[in-house]
Amino acid sequence: MDSQTAIDIGRQALWTALLIGSPVLLTGLVVGLLIGLLQALTQIQEQTVAFVPKIVAMVVVLSVALPWLITCMVQYATELIGGIPGRF
Fold it and tell me: Domain limits at 65?
């Protein structure tokens, strides 16, 4: 295996990790911004008010996107393992 192959494998791994983590992280970001805006408008500065809705929204998105996430992970693992004979 040459260095370019190792770089390609690493790049694909990082891209897959970003793709898998992005729905949950973006949901947390959006809900956090909305709750922060609501807290700024009402001047309620309680930390737990922002935490619970974020966790609930992230769990909902994770449960909805889970089949797609598993498909992405299985596809990546299949390509990685299937490419072993040609890389060595």
Answer: 3-83
Q: Please indicate, yes or no, if residue 15 is contained in any of the structural domains.
A: yes
88 lies in some domain = no
**Rg of the chain over all Cα atoms, to the nearest angstrom:** 19
Q: What are phi and psi of 81, to 5 degrees?
A: -70, -40
19 domain-assigned:
yes
Q: Are 49 and 34 in contact (CB under 8 A)?
A: no
Dump the DSSP string for 10-33: HHHHHHHHHHHHHHHHHHHHHHHH
> What integer is the mean pLDDT of 24-53?
89
Residue that the structure tokens 């996430």 belong to:
69
pLDDT tens-digit map of 17-31: 999 999 999 999 999
Is residue 47's pLDDT more than 90?
no
